TrEMBL record:
SUPFAM superfamilies: Outer arm dynein light chain 1
Cellular compartments annotated: Cytoplasm, Cytoskeleton, Flagellum axoneme
Any one Pfam family match given in the protein's UniProt record, by short name: LRR_9
SMART domains noted in UniProt: LRR_SD22
Stretches of the chain forming a coiled coil according to its record: 210-243
Domain of life of the source: Eukaryota
Name by which UniProt lists this protein: Dynein regulatory complex subunit 3
Major site of localization recorded for this protein: cytoplasm
Gene Ontology, cellular component aspect: cilium
Family named by the database record: Belongs to the DRC3 family.
Keyword Coiled coil: yes
Length: 522
């Protein structure tokens, strides 16, 4: 039996900062409770939270818990799944015993493996396409009435545990056989281990349907793979600053209203012209695209090399610095042991001065090491900037050269296109105008000025598309170069400041320990 919380008996609760903090504090172990009380808890460090039995009506204000992997919201009065799309690290989500009617707002949670929607008001399994890692799914005690809901679950290849008990579909005599036949990787159904013998019998019953379904799945999978390949290619083009490069020819005609207007004058001849234009156009685009993608790949390699070069340089100086610090720590400990047994004030004063001098000398050596690495980094970054500049310049030069070739192609095409259009105009204009049945064609032929204006407009539109493509490459390369140089310099500046502060802080601590050792004598 499905049960729901009554609004008449409870007051709805809002997820507030206080409620979240209370929930976090309730789950803290005694071992860290005192530390948490003094220092507080960073919400970003919270991996799991229980917000069950709180009479929550609306999901909200969870933005500070962006690193959650486990979220428990069961036994509330929630009506809608919302405001959790940013919790992309979630692997476990419990929304059981609520008043939810529609599955929604989950597609961003791509790492979800365990989902419970048990005991809600859901009548359809939907809107979960991106949850490809789903392993455990509980949808029992809802309003599912059609076995077709089970077909939706066939997309989840990792699904091993399903609970659908308590739905109307369970009354269907074919319920179990239908599920076992269609969800071939399932291990547990409605809390019971699945028998492999039952699976084979069930698949035999639905063999014809399964063959058809598997064929459909193959087609769907193939389409999905092609879409994913296309998405990755488009992303690569965008990263290389040649967005839509392979669609340039198609777009400049499809998006050109004047071309479509003039096309009715001589569609077959224009098609022949366009095919010839496309063949020459695509040769240039392929050459340009291949070269720029190659240089883009080299840019990524340079970024990896600079990271390794910096890490190697840091590792070398860090090892020297660590040795200096360790040696100094040994001498400091020896000083503290020795000075604690001294009683002569002059002798103590000389020992303290000698130790502080040792600290200052080591500090100078550490600072000298830091200056060395700063100089090394400056040289590395200069070389890096030079290499990047050369790569981006070659990309821009390639773009300029090939776009100039394309503009020349366009000019040649435009001459032939204009000749074709005007020839068609002269031929049709000399014919019997009353015999023309197409109203758009009759209107076009009636005014030669319209045709001339449209010809110029279509040529200008094509040139504009080329300008935009070239500008995209130019601005993209320049911005990436500027941002990358700025990033590396900023990171080096921050690293240098941090290291200098570390050295100063370390020296201050040593001075304090030396003074304390001296004070403890008297």
């Amino acid at each position: 039996m499905i049960t729901f919380v009554s609004y008449a008996s409870v007051d709805p609760v809002v997820i507030s900062e206080e409620l979240i903090n209370t929930a976090i504090n309730e789950q803290i172990t005694p071992e860290i409770a005192e530390i948490a009380k003094k220092e507080g808890i960073d919400p970003e460090e919270v991996k799991a939270i229980r917000l069950d039995y709180k009479n929550i009506l609306k999901i909200n204000n969870l933005w500070s818990l962006k690193n959650l992997t486990k979220l428990q919201l069961d036994n509330n009065i929630i009506e809608k799944i919302e405001n959790i799309n940013f919790l992309v690290n979630l692997t476990w989500l419990d929304l059981s015993f609520n008043n939810i009617t529609v599955i929604e707002g989950l597609n961003e949670l791509v790492n979800l493996t365990d989902l419970s929607l048990f005991n809600n008001r859901i009548s359809k399994i939907e809107n979960m396409d991106e949850l490809t890692k789903l392993t455990v799914f509980s949808i029992g005690n809802n309003n599912l009435s059609s076995l077709e809901n089970i077909l939706y679950l066939t997309r989840f290849e990792n699904l091993r545990v399903l609970n659908a008990a308590g739905n109307k579909i369970c009354n269907d005599k074919n319920y179990k056989a239908y599920i076992l036949a269609n969800l071939k990787n399932l291990k547990y159904l409605d809390y019971r281990l699945i028998n492999q013998e039952e699976v084979e019998k069930s698949r035999a019953i639905y063999l014809d349907d399964l063959i058809a379904l598997e064929e459909e799945e193959k087609i769907t999978k193939s389409k999905k793979e092609k879409l994913e390949q296309r998405r990755k290619l488009e992303q690569l083009f965008e990263e290389a600053h040649i967005k839509n490069i392979d669609m340039l020819f198609q777009d400049m005609f499809e998006q050109d209203p004047d071309f479509h207007k003039l096309n009715i004058l001589a569609p077959e001849k224009i098609q022949d012209l366009n095919e010839d234009y496309r063949a020459k156009f695509e040769i240039i685009i392929i050459e340009m695209k291949d070269f720029i993608l190659k240089k883009h790949s080299e840019v990524q390699e340079e970024k990896e090399l600079i990271t390794k070069a910096i890490e190697d340089a840091k590792a070398e100086t860090d090892s020297k610095g660590i040795k200096l610090v360790n040696d100094l720590e040994h001498r400091k400990k020896a000083f503290i042991r020795t000075v604690s047994n001294m009683r002569d004030v002059k002798e103590i004063d000389e020992a303290v001065k000698a130790m502080k001098f040792d600290v200052d000398e080591t500090s100078n050596e550490l600072m000298a090491l830091e200056m060395t690495i700063v100089e090394q980094f400056e040289e590395i970054l200069r070389e890096y900037e030079k290499n990047l500049q050369e790569l981006f310049n070659s990309m821009l030069e390639c773009g300029q050269t090939n776009m100039a070739r394309i503009r020349e192609l366009e000019n040649n095409y435009f001459e032939r296109y204009t000749e074709c259009i005007m020839s068609a105009y002269d031929r049709i204009h000399k014919s019997d105008m009353d015999s023309i049945e197409n109203d758009d064609l009759r209107e076009l032929i009636s005014d030669k000025e319209i045709i001339l204006n449209s010809l110029n407009a279509t040529h200008d539109f094509h040139l504009l598309k080329f300008d935009q493509q070239e500008d995209g490459l130019s601005s993209g390369c320049n911005k990436e170069l500027e941002d990358e140089i700025q990033r590396t310099h900023n990171e080096e500046t921050q690293r240098n400041r941090k290291r200098v502060i570390e050295i100063i802080t370390y020296v201050e601590r040593l001075y304090y320990e030396i003074d304390q050792a001296e004070d403890n004598i008297f």
